[in-house]
Amino acid sequence: MSDYLTDEEQVDRLKKLWKDYGITVVVALAVGIGGTVAWDYFKAYQSDKAQDASNLYTSYLEASGLGEPTSSFVEELESNYGQSAYFAFTLLRQAKGEVDEANFEAAHESLTRAFEVARGSPIGDLVALRKAKVEFELGDYESVLLTLQEVQTAGYRWQALMLKGDVHFQNNELDAARDAYQSAKDQLPVGFESGVVEMRLASVPPAP
After folding, report:
1. CA 23, CA 18: separation in Å to the nearest integer?
2. pLDDT digits (tens, 9 = 90+) for 132-174
3. Taking the complete model, does pTM exceed 0.85, yes or no?
4. CA 8 and chain centroid, separation
5. How far apart are CA 12 and CA 34, in angstroms?
6. What is the largest CA-CA distance in the chain?
C-alpha cells in the first residue's frame, strides 16, 4: 500500500512512526518504501537532531561558565541525546567539577555513565583514562588496572601505562612499575618531552 503514497504522505507517516516506534522501524520503512523525499526527510531529521544536541550542549557550557544551574540541561541531554558524544562530554565536564571539589565518588559515577556512552571510541579512551585516575584517588587499584585495559588509542596509551606504573609502585611491585614506566617512555608520541616519565623511572629503586 505504501507504494501508492505520495511523498508528502510518506513524510507524514515517517514522522508518526518515529514518534511511536523510534529509529529502527523508521529506517527500515524509509528504505523499504523507496521514497526519496521520505529518506531525505529522515536524513534531515538526523542532522537537525545533531544540531539540537549541539545547541543544548552549548547552552549547558554557557550556564556552567556563568555558575548558573545546569541540571535541566543535563537532564534534557540525557533524555533526548543520551547516546551522543555531547552527553558524554557533558558528563566529563561534570566529573571535572566534582574532582575539583574532591568529590571523587560523584566523579566516578559521572565517568562510569560517560564510559557506558562512549566505550569503544577515542572519546571512550579519554573517559576510561580519567575514570582510572579517579579510581586511583579512591585507592581502588584493582579497578584502575581493569579500566586501563580499555584504553587502546595510541595517544592515550602512554598515559595509561604511567598510571599502571603508579599502581604497581603503590603496591610495591617495583619490577612491574619499572616495566610500565619504560613502556610509557617507549610509547611517547613524537615531540613529547620525556621528563615526567624519566622522573617516574628514576623514582623506582634499581633491581638488585
Report:
1. 6
2. 999 999 999 999 999 999 998 888 899 999 999 999 999 999 9
3. no
4. 39
5. 15
6. 83
